[in-house]
Design goal:
- This protein has 50 helices and 2 strands.
- It is mainly α.
- Among the domains are: 60-130 and 151-293, Leucine-rich Repeat Variant, CATH 1.25.10; 366-509; 540-602; 754-882, no CATH class; 884-963.
- The protein has a two-stranded antiparallel ribbon.
- α23 packs parallel to α25 (475-490), α26 (499-509) packs parallel to α30 and α32 runs antiparallel to α33 (677-693).
- The longest helix is centred in the first third of the chain and has 38 residues, at 18-55.
- The protein is flat.
- Residues 620-920 form the Nuclear condensin complex subunit 3 C-terminal domain.
- One of its GO terms (cellular component) is cytoplasm.
- It is found in: Chromosome.
Length: 1057
């Protein structure tokens, strides 16, 4: 068939097919819709053009009214108002009218949406007259011809704002700084302004960054962002920023400056210091700024390590998340994702724990697949070649294996891909530990050799740590590993720094305590008394006799051989046969003599044990013994093996001349005494003597051992009938003069011993050695918290030590006592009674401190607030019923009694102020008695401040319910637009900088209210400062409640005019 006929047949077939018409209708409908859409689009374009034409005739008043609404397109408003501005010949009236309507928004301090929209519109309109960005050639040409002046309208707005920045109203000052900030921020990157205008803005903002209101300071600081010159060593903006970061009391101001400050060598230390800011949000932003603006290579090793150490252990989870999610990824990104290079930047040999924490944080944010992709270059045995081992690689290997093992069953398969079996690894570890060299006297003077040995020791430590990740369930592998660890502990050339770690890993593989003791005792015996070969001297007379015998035998053999030859020649064969037998016997005798001579010439060796008492050997043995005692179960009694070690090793080492040996021996003695009450009683006096007479580090070890024994056995350990003593009760505190421990009636000897121990610990609190002072304070806190002693005077001593400016740099002491105070007070009512009894002595000590005493610098108000918070009934873990008499009731009576003694004393005002912060019980009898006391005080006290405080307290006692209702009704009064102005007249009057030695732990009830009011008055905006934003629904609801419309004010002004 031809192509023409085929086409005709297909056309005929299509016309007969009903689907053909259906598809045709669909295509027609689609075309019709497209045509309709095109007509509508053209209609919309015409309407838009008509609207734009109408908008071009818009007035300034209408533009400001429309700008208040968020849904209006500000770009269109700006374009229409710009068109009108350009059409005017005389711009003066426009400038004046525009500023007139702007003033309505500038008198509102509150962050109302309508006002914020107006400010945004003004900033856009004022900067729309700027010329578009120019190329470098055009800029150079302009510089040759002379720079053009700024636009008249922009200059007019700036001049108006700069005339108003000193206004009395803080609302006007705030809006001025905000507008300048937005104007400068809306300009192009390469925008230029007149030098005089630049200087004027600069001077004005430098004044406003010291404003009384935080919001003004925030906007002024942000306005100077583009005015700073980091390369100028005398840049006033940089100087102002550094001053704010260091001294500004408002956290939001510090955050604003952090987000604006340019990084340079001068500002970097200030930003680093903000990572230790008291406020969580400031610390978070500081880490984000460092991640975004500072290259890891711009920081020193110490700065990198401190950042990670503080950030990864910050008390706030949000700060820790920022370090893991921002700082570490930013550093890795700048190092091309090379984790080994990052470890090299951290100097892992000196800060291994920080590097491990950083690696764990990186691994947590890394998918499981990438963990194995980023593994080291392992060989076919799943080991790193010895030549490729570096501190960074081996630490990465250890951290990766520990992280995978922590996953449990999920990580078992992954662990098999990065770690060999136990037997293979044991051989690998043995080979590397054997290769660690021992330096001679000459090599120790070579720095390169010393560094090489230090590096090898560090790698050895990490390889030993890796044994904890091995699968030791298989018997053969575990035995191989045990054999290697035992041999390395007995090997004399093993570095001393590895002994403790090797012992720890060895004991981990042995679950039974008896087997542990036996194994370690055998190793100690091999180290202290190694097997040596002893040789006996050779006897010269015996040797000479054997030589003579040998010569005689040789002569007889020669004679016999000569006779044999003669017999053979004479053919006397029977005689020859006899001679032949004689020659054989003589040769056997000769060989025997030769063997005897050879045996006598090689002296017989003998294996004997020789005891070694050098300091290094004793330190090795004592370290293994201390680790063994530490790992033993505390309930296990002392056996014959430990007793032997005590008598032959530990006690003789206490009298050793080497201080390091004595120190480890004291640790062993204290740990061993924990397993036996009798041994503790026997050696307590020895430990007390050491704590007073030896070197500092040994005294601290003895002091800690004494505290541990008292914690376990109590002060009853010091009594003679030790077997009949019972545990100390934790009921009401003993009120002794010297603060004796709580116990039943004991003999005079035990009481004197307990008192002497407390006197010794009390003297240590006044020691000039900070380590000894800290150890004593920590021990007393432990004994007090565990109810082994209860003394109000000792608690007062600890409080004074905590506030003493002398201990300001002792971070460990301050942290320990700060935690102890809170935990101790919350534990029980009896503890709060002890604190209440120590209140007056502590206050009197601080008040009566001479001018030369460091306690004179302590803020007494803060001390009172601490006691009030610690004795608050609601702070107890198990609060008592409200009807029960609480500790604050007793505290109120005590303060009233002190005020009655001397109504004119300076502390009366302090006590009167404190009374209103107490949580009194609801017992009517107590309230009535206290009311009578207050009435008597009102008649005696003459100070007006005290009288007002006492009358306020009396009103609270008379009818607390009506007073609460009165407060609630007054709190519901409506607020005007500028309500914040009254609340923020003097926001920082009550805020005082803490003196040296002052520590704020908990504020009183009234203090908390005032701080909240101060925070609300200093409420600062978060513009351009990263912060968590609320949800859309919450935002809408809040805006509806606080909606403000400027139109009534504008219309009212128009009607009046």
């Amino acid at each position: 068939m031809s192509l023409t006929n085929a086409g005709a047949c297909q056309a005929k077939h299509r016309t007969q097919n009903p689907m053909f018409y259906k598809r045709l209708y669909v295509r027609i409908a689609v075309l019709a819709r497209l045509h309709l859409f095109e007509n509508r689009r053209q209609c919309d374009v015409r309407k838009t053009e008509e609207k734009m034409t109408a908008d071009q005739e818009i007035g300034i008043k209408e533009a400001f009214q429309r700008a208040q609404k968020g849904h209006n397109n500000k770009a269109k408003l700006v374009a229409s108002l710009k068109s009108r501005y350009n059409s005017l010949e005389d711009k003066t009236l426009f400038h004046e009218e525009f500023v007139h309507y702007l003033k309505y928004a500038m008198i509102v301090y509150k962050r109302e949406p309508a006002v914020e929209h107006v400010i945004e519109f003004v900033a856009r309109f004022a900067t729309c007259f700027q010329s578009p960005p120019k190329t470098e050639e055009e800029e150079e040409q302009e510089e040759e011809e002379g720079a053009e002046d700024d636009h008249p309208f922009l200059c007019y707005i700036f001049n108006f704002l700069l005339e108003s920045y000193k206004a009395n109203s803080h609302a006007v000052r705030f809006r001025v700084c905000q507008l300048i900030n937005k104007l400068l921020g809306s300009m192009a990157e390469n925008a230029q302004i007149n030098d005089d205008l630049f200087d004027h803005i600069h001077q004005a903002m430098l004044v406003r960054v010291t404003d009384k209101f935080p919001n003004v300071r925030i906007q002024a600081a942000m306005a100077m962002t583009r005015l700073q010159q980091p390369k100028d060593p005398d840049c006033p903006t940089i100087n102002a920023y550094m001053l704010i970061l260091e001294n500004d009391t408002n956290a939001e101001v510090r955050r604003a400056v952090l987000s604006c400050v340019a990084m340079c060598p001068r500002t970097l230390p200030k930003v680093l210091k903000r990572t230790r800011d008291i406020k969580e949000n400031v610390r978070k932003l500081a880490y984000q700024v460092l991640a975004d603006k500072v290259h890891v290579k711009a920081l020193t090793i110490e700065q990198r390590v401190n950042l990670l150490q503080q950030g990864l252990h910050d008390t706030s989870e949000a700060v820790r998340d920022v370090v893991c999610s921002y700082l570490l990824p930013a550093w890795l990104l700048r190092l091309d994702g090379n984790i080994i290079e990052l470890l090299h930047r951290l100097d892992v040999e000196n800060c291994a724990q920080t590097a491990l924490d950083a690696l764990r944080a990186i691994f947590r944010c890394m998918p499981t697949e990438e963990l194995l992709q980023n593994r080291m270059q392992l060989d076919n045995k799943k080991l790193i070649p010895v030549d490729s081992l570096t501190p960074e690689i081996v630490l990465y290997w250890r951290s990766l294996c520990e992280f995978i093992k922590a996953k449990g069953d999920e990580g078992d398969e992954m662990l098999e891909q990065v770690l060999p079996d136990a037997a293979t690894y044991a051989a690998y570890l043995y080979g590397y530990l054997k290769s660690v060299p021992e330096l001679s006297e000459e090599q120790r003077s070579d720095i390169d050799q010393v560094e090489l040995v230090i590096t090898k020791k560090f790698i050895s430590q990490q390889l030993i740590h890796l044994t904890g990740c091995l699968d030791t369930n298989e018997e053969g592998g575990r035995k191989c590993l045990l054999a290697v660890l035992q041999e390395m502990l007995a090997f004399p050339q093993t570095p001393f720094s590895l002994v403790s770690l090797l012992t720890e890993k060895l004991l981990t593989l042995i679950p039974d305590d008896q087997r542990r003791i036996q194994t370690v005792a055998e190793i100690i015996s091999d180290v202290k008394e190694p097997i040596m070969e002893a040789s006996q001297p050779v006897d010269e007379k015996e040797s000479r006799r054997q030589q003579v015998q040998l010569a005689e035998v040789k002569v007889r053999i020669l004679e016999a051989k000569q006779t044999l030859e003669d017999c053979i020649t004479a053919q006397e064969f029977s005689r020859a046969a006899e001679l032949k037998d004689d020659i054989a016997e003589l040769e056997n005798h000769r060989n025997q003599i030769i063997q005897e001579i050879a045996a006598s010439s090689q002296p017989a060796d003998k294996e004997i044990r020789t005891e070694k008492n050098d300091p290094e050997t004793l330190q090795r043995c004592l370290t293994m013994c201390a680790q063994l005692l530490k790992e033993m179960n505390i309930k296990m009694q002392i056996g014959p093996t430990i007793s032997t070690l005590m008598s032959s090793l530990i006690l003789p080492s206490i009298a050793n001349a080497h201080p390091d040996v004595r120190n480890i021996a004291v640790v062993c003695l204290g740990t061993c005494a924990l397993h036996s009450r009798e041994m503790a009683k026997t050696h307590m006096v020895l430990l007390l003597q050491i704590a007073q007479l030896d070197e500092v580090k040994i005294r601290i070890s003895a002091l800690r051992a004494i505290i541990d024994l008292l914690l376990l056995f109590g002060f009853q350990l010091l009594s003679k009938p030790a077997a009949t003593q019972t545990a100390l009760p934790s009921q009401s505190p003993d009120r002794q003069e010297e603060g004796a421990p709580l116990a039943e009636e004991k003999g005079d000897g035990s009481e004197d011993t307990a008192q002497s121990i407390l006197v010794m610990l009390s003297e240590f609190l006044d020691s000039e050695v900070s380590e000894l002072r800290t150890a004593a304070a920590e021990g007393l806190a432990k004994l007090t918290y565990n109810s082994r002693m209860s003394s109000s005077k000792m608690f007062s001593r600890l409080v004074l030590l905590w506030y003493n400016p002398v201990t300001e740099d002792d971070t460990l002491l301050r942290h320990c006592l700060g935690v102890f105070f809170q935990l101790y007070a919350r534990e029980s009512r009896a503890h709060q009674e002890v604190i209440e009894e120590s209140f007056l002595p502590t206050i009197q000590t601080v008040m009566n401190a001479p001018v030369t005493s460091p306690l004179a610098e302590v803020d007494i108000n803060n001390v009172v607030e601490l006691f009030v918070e610690l004795t608050r009934p609601s702070a107890l873990i198990k609060p008592s019923p409200n009807t029960e008499v609480c500790v604050h009731d007793y505290l109120a009576v005590r303060m009233c009694g002190e005020m009655m003694k001397d109504p004119k004393a300076p502390e009366v005002r302090l006590y009167a102020k404190t009374l209103s912060n107490l949580e009194l019980s609801r017992d009517e009898t107590i309230r009535k008695d206290l009311h009578i006391l207050l009435q008597e005080l009102v008649q005696v006290v003459k100070d007006r401040f005290c009288l007002r405080a006492l009358e306020k307290m009396m009103n609270q006692l008379v009818d607390s319910k009506e007073h609460a209702e009165l407060l609630s009704t007054s709190a519901l009064q409506p607020l005007d637009v500028n309500a914040d102005e009254t609340a923020t007249d003097e926001p920082s009057k009550s805020a005082k900088r803490p003196k040296r030695g002052q520590r704020k732990v908990c504020t009183a009830k009234g203090g908390r209210k005032s701080s909240r009011r101060a925070e609300s008055s200093e409420e600062s905006d978060g513009e351009n400062v990263p912060m968590v934003r609320p949800s859309r629904k919450a935002k809408t609801a809040a805006l509806e409640k606080t909606k403000l419309d400027l139109n009534p004010l504008i219309n009212q002004e128009a009607n009046v005019s």
